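Worked example

This section walks through a single chain of length 450. The input is the sequence exactly as stored; nothing has been trimmed or padded.
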Amino acid sequence: MTLEQVDTFIDNHRKKYMELLFDFLKIKSISTDTENIRHCADVLKSNMESLGIDTRIMETGGNPVVYGELMSDNNDFTLLIYGHYDVQAVEPVELWASDPFTPEIRDGRIYARGVGDNKGQLMTQLLGIKTYMELYGSLPINIKFIFEGEEELGSVHLSEFVEDHQSLLEADLVYTADGSSHNSGSPLILLGVRGVLSFEMTVKGADFDNHSGNTGNVVPNPVWKMIELLNTMQDKDGNVHVSGFYDNVRGPSQTDMRLLSSLPYDEKDIGEKIGYTDLNMDGEAYYRRLTMEPTFNIAGIRSGYTGDHAKTIIPATATVNIDMRLVVDQNPADIFDKVKRHVHAFDPDIEVAYRGAMHPSRTPSDLEIVRVVTDAVGEAYGKTPLVQPSMPGSLPDYVWTKILETPSIIMPYANFDQHNHSPNENLKVEHFFNGIKCTCHLIKVLGERR
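Given that input, the structure is written out below as tokens.
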């Protein structure tokens, strides 16, 4: 069976495949919407069962996992496919050009919440398997599926689930379709992720908001203390001054730098796509900062009054939300302890509240399975894929590489400018169908490899 015949089969089923995707996207499976999350899990289970996948819904301490498998004693290689069916909230709704849960195609792109992250990419996996079975018959490898409903909440119960079901999830490779492809349009293989640590810091002033005239120069404004604190934690050049923050950062290897230096870089194009045309750095610095270095990011500040009307107050509290992207071998718990020590040395009355974390993860680039997958992806796309040691963002990849001790490869099927987590999230139509083709071909190649 040639790739041209696979293309022809997919072309003949475009309408049906798109209908299945659209039905899935219409479900408002926002992570915190328990009712719709359950409904989405049930629909996903039905879709998987229609493909002959032995599927069950498994409970966690939060949203359920949808687990499935296609197993045969004749196969000696097992692929574990991971994805998530929960989506981000849609606010601000007024910035969407169309209803976020009524999918529509405009200018070759599907617009809907979750189409890129991750329902559309999840569906490419299932439809790629459907395509393979229709064309070739029985699968040449075993496939297990784990689709969670809490990735957008930080996968808070996934590590516990994996710990408790290690035998069930045993595999030779974990394969994830998530994230964004390279801005150049080339297929992109990711061998790891940065971790993340999220926390809040709250400075308290008076017991309640005060009149800024009646108590000005008397009641302290907590915003100023928060600004002072933040300035002790990171300087204007982005260097973090929390003691020990960089202690365990693993520097890039020669192989890492070789992979990063081979990635194409177009400063103007990237600047336009991320909405920051003042971007001013070379390609080596760009990729090193995105994949090999940790971050200290102020995600938001809450204090006082910022409405349209006059309200002259001294706010009672100031709260800042921080997320840190961590790299191998930083440990989120260790970094959080160091942050608390830094803050409490500055002022022991400042509250530091943990919000969530994911460990960083990395699969060695010199593994044979990495070469096999890279070759298969290149054949499917007719173009040599780029290989990146880590994605800039975070996924719960560590549960595979650290708990299961299994190599993990991430292959984004979504376009670079998918606007996931933002209004007008989209997936290019051709990216959707290319993902189906890639999944189908990968199964074939993995089967031949045995």
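What to look for: The domain at 195-251+292-358 is CATH 3.30.70.360 (Alpha-Beta Plaits).
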